[in-house]
Design brief:
- The chain has about 140 residues and is α+β, with helices and mostly antiparallel strands.
- It contains 3 helices and 7 strands.
- Strands 1, 2, 3, 4, 5, 6 and 7 form a 7-stranded antiparallel β-sheet that branches.
- It is elongated, with a radius of gyration of 20 Å.
- The termini are far apart.
Length: about 140
């Protein structure tokens, strides 16, 4: 069985890996990862919200954002939740254009929180490789 982390350790682990931006939990509750999940769980306990799946939470965030008119990299995580403990199960990373068209996508399955790639590694998975320009050969006479 995979090791489940409490909310503090889960948030600390993701933050160390570079996931320190704002998250959406179940498409709502925008805040840092710990606060977003806490607000969602509080709403569930009061009965104003409920999870879409019994033991899974959905977390969304942007890994790279350079403005409305530039391509962006988004991340969607499915997190297993059992009795106040959390663990990342699956992750989808997508690079989309300025109009929302998909440029490149990567899907990671069978993850744990400790095996989640860093933000830099995740962005590299969906980045285009830079075109290597070959220097023009000097034409001339050789002696």
């Amino acid at each position: 069985m995979k090791h489940l982390l409490d909310l503090d350790e889960f948030a600390k682990t993701l933050t160390k890996k570079g996931y320190d931006g704002f998250f959406l939990t179940q498409a709502g509750y925008p805040d840092k990862v710990k606060d977003s999940i806490s607000r969602f769980l509080e709403a569930c306990s009061t009965g104003t919200d409920k999870p879409l799946y019994s033991n899974l939470l959905s977390l969304n965030t942007y890994l790279e954002w350079n403005g409305e008119d530039q391509p962006k990299v988004g991340c969607h995580m499915w997190v297993r939740y059992e009795h106040g403990r959390f663990d990342v199960q699956k992750m989808k990373i997508e690079r989309t254009g300025c109009y929302g068209q998909l440029i490149k996508k990567s899907e990671l399955t069978n993850l744990t929180t400790s095996s989640v790639p860093t933000v830099r590694e995740a962005i590299a998975q969906v980045s285009e490789k830079p075109n290597v320009e070959i220097a023009p050969r000097k034409r001339g006479f050789r002696m």
